[in-house]
Amino acid sequence: AIDKLHLRIVIRGGRYFVEDNGTQEGTYVNGVAVSGPHPLKDGDLIEAGKAALRFSERARRPEASASGGA
C-alpha cells in the first residue's frame, strides 16, 4: 500500500519534480532513492512502497492567441 502523502509531484519552472515526504520506505526513480526534489522525464519509473508508477508527460498545447487565430 501507499500512503496518500507518501510523495508529491510538483511543477517548477515548467519541469516536473517528485519529492518524498520523509517516509521510511522512501521513494525511488528508476531504482535511485530520491533525496530532495528529483526532476522527472517522460518514461521514468517512480516506486513508492510496493506501488510503481510510470511518469508520462503529455506535450503541452500551444496557448490560443488572443485574437482567436484570426
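The record above closes out task 2.4. Task 2.5 opens with a second protein, given below.
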Amino acid sequence: AASTATKTASVTAPTPGSSFTYTVTATNSGNTPLLAATLSDPIPSGLTATAASASTGTCTVSAGQVDCAL
C-alpha cells in the first residue's frame, strides 16, 4: 500500500506562550487497506503537546512525541 503523511500548523509564526494546532493527515493512496498502521510524530524542541486525537484509532503523547494507532 502507498501511504503519505502531511503536517500543517494553524499559524505560521506562533508567539511564545500561545497555543496552536498541528494537523497531520495520513492518506492511503494504494488499492489495499492499511492494517495496523501507526504514525509517530516527534514534538519539536521548545514545544509542549497537550493533546492528540485521531478520526480513526487512538493517539498518545509521551516521551517527546505523538504516537497514533490508526
